[in-house]
Every structure is written in structure tokens, then in C-alpha cells.
Specification:
Blueprint lengths: L1 E5 L4 H12 L3 E6 L2 H17 L6 E4 H7 L2 E4 L3 H10 L8 E4 L4 E4 L2 E4 L7 H8 L4 E4 L6 H5 L7 E7 L2 H13 L3 E5 L6 H17 L11
Parallel strand pairs: 1-2, 1-4, 2-3, 4-5, 5-8, 9-10
Antiparallel strand pairs: 6-7, 8-9
Length: 217
Amino acid sequence: MKISILGGTGNLGKGLAIRLNLAGFDVFVGSRKEEKAKKLAEEYNEVAEKFGGGGIIGVENEKAAKISDVSIITIPWEHAFETAEKLKNALSEKIVVSPLVPMRFENGFAHYVEIDGSSAAEKLASILSESFVVSAFNNIPAKRFANLEEKFSWDVLVCSDDAKAKKVVMDVVNKIEGLRALDFGELKNSRIVEKLTPMLINLAKINNLKPLGLRFD
């Protein structure tokens, strides 16, 4: 399966690119500029090769979207919707994963940003009306996830209005060591999932803990 990480520059994009590569997927890192994408891919491959992986390819965002079966949008939420508009045709009939969490920080604390009374995933779905939008990876502590030495056991809540697309994404999640996918129903439930992230960030800060993930036992 071909998976693209669109805007794969931050810690979540890095962690996904490398860990999905190690899980056996064909991974493409996308960026607005191909030169930057290739540089990122080279950097990620240096890490992946230490763990027996490699072969991540860097391409421009539109090409990455076109050639992939699944695209994960790891662009900062403030710019993600504009990018989605530009990639609408390339992402048509494709599975698109939203790990987006609209947040702002004040005095070091995270606050959720409401988007027209819905979620970032639903906003994305309204733009990408010809795509199959799935929310996942919203609560992953990105910095820890990008550290390949880090061992963890986290649950990933997955929401979508398309059962087949949701199953595909859940299967992908379960291939990543240390992650377990849990079905959390319709896409509208991503409103709850996204709001958990600032809670986790603030909980860790108040109690002087390392960044927290979710685990249900």
C-alpha cells in the first residue's frame, strides 16, 4: 500500500513516515516544494535505515496525493484547509486521514479552537467531498512518536462515515508497533477526540509529566 504524508515536516509527520516505512508500507513524504520533500526523505531514511528500513521517497504534495492510496495530512491546522482545496482533485476517491487538532496556546496552556461548531475532520470532509475522510492519530504525543528509541502502548481512536475507509486506516494503525486502533464511530465523533489533545497536553504540564498518549484497559 502507498501512503503519503502531506506536509510531513513536523514531529508527527516524521514519526508517521518512518514508522509506516518500518511497518512495510511504501511511504511518500510530500511538501509544497519537491526539493524540500527530497531533503526530508533523505533525513528520514537515515533514521529508518538504522532500524532496518529505508526507501522513503520525497515528492511534491500533489504528486504524493495522486500516487498514494492513503494520504495523511500533517500540515498545521491553520493551513490544512487551504492546502486541501488545492489538492481536492488529486485526492478525489482517495482515503484522507485527518490527525488535525485546532489549538492555540496561552501562557503555555493549550486551548481547543472551535471550527463552525464541528471538528477539523468534518471541515476537511466538507472540502474534500469526493474523498473518504477518516480521523486518526489526533492524540499522539508527536515528539515522543518521532523518537524511534521511544517505546509506547497507545490507543488511536478512529472515526469515519465510510466503513471501508475506516477499516483500511485501522489496519494501517495496527501495523505500527505500539499502537492499537479503536473504532469510535462516525466522523462527527472526532469532535470529542480532537478535544482530548489539549486536555492531555495540559494534564502533562500541570503534573510535570512527559507528553501523554491514550490507553484504554
